[in-house]
Amino acid sequence: MNLRHLATEPRQYDRPRVRWDEEGLANSPTRLHMHYYLRRYLPRLNGRNVLDVGSGTGHLSRLLFRLGAARVIGIEPSRRNVRISRRHFPRVKVYPSTLERARVTERFETAVVVMALEHSPSLERWFRLIRKLLEPGGELYAIVGDFRHHTSSRFDYTIQRQRFADGSMAVGIERPFGTLYDIIRPLRNYRQAARRAGLRLRRQIPLRPSPLLLESRSKYRVYRRQAINRLLIFERPLA
């Protein structure tokens, strides 16, 4: 089985056995875990237009509008997710497309990518495309899977793994809502690819299970002192 191909398939969330309708919405404990940390580290958006790459069901828009965003523009290749987004979060303008094919002409001061870089076949290419959509001085906030956590056996999940020469690993994890495939990368891969693409990694923040996640899903308590995700803050230099 080619796990890399499955992980980078733009329509994997459209597979019949993936039940993302509940897990991917804004009130899901795992989505609220992401919101908890983004609320702490995102700036006040004060009328900005914000780009959400891999916007999924549109769940992030609830937080982004609360922080003052004027508009949220999403890019999302899954037809099912686009339908859910338009139904639950109609204020989001969604391009039903991959990042490579999206015809976005605007430029943004702020972009967010939550657990979508894991589906990129080329980090450097994605970073170059995002850089073109950022204003000089603009920032990219990316939440990615922590390498140790996401490649290790945990809970009662069945995990498939395929390691690559650059240190990354494709994984397929069978969860209650279906099997999802990701490419999990060491931190150095993000830093190096961003530098080659003209972005600077300004800060990386390990994200432990949030209080709400610990309260709602007790299985995460064993990881309460470990990072399960990382927030990477990139900047497009002014020069």
What does this entry show, briefly?
By secondary structure, the chain is of the alpha/beta class. The chain is built from 9 helices and 10 strands. The model has no long low-confidence stretch (mean pLDDT 95).
Give structural notes:
The chain starts with a helix and ends with a strand. α5 (79-88) links the parallel β2 (71-75) and β3 (93-95). It has helices spanning 3-7, 20-23, 29-41, 60-66, 79-88, 123-133, 147-151, 187-197, 211-216, and strands at residues 49-53, 71-75, 93-95, 108-114, 134-145, 158-163, 169-175, 178-184, 200-207, 229-235. The model has no long low-confidence stretch (mean pLDDT 95). It has 239 residues and is an alpha/beta fold. It is globular. Helices cover 30% and strands 28% of the residues. α6 crosses α8 (187-197). The protein has one domain: Rossmann fold (3-Layer(aba) Sandwich), CATH 3.40.50.150.
Determine the fraction of residues in helical runs and give it as a percent range. Answer: 25-40%
Kindly, what is the distance between the CA atoms of the first and last residues, rounded to a whole number of angstroms? 44 Å
- Characterize the largest beta sheet: strand count, sense, and whether it forms a barrel: 7 strands, mixed
Radius of gyration: 17 Å
CATH class: Alpha Beta
CATH architecture call: 3-Layer(aba) Sandwich
What is the beta-strand fraction?
A: 25-35%
Low-confidence stretches: none
| Name of the CATH homologous superfamily | Vaccinia Virus protein VP39
Number of helices, where a helix is a run of at least 4 consecutive DSSP H or I residues: 9
Strand element count: 10
User: What is the third-level CATH name, the topology?
Assistant: Rossmann fold
Average pLDDT metric:
95
Total individual domains: 1
The secondary-structure element order is HHHEHEHEEHEHEEEHEHE
Counting helices, strands and paired strands, the structural category is: alpha/beta
Shape: globular
Strands in their spatial order, largest beta sheet: 3-2-1-4-5-10-9
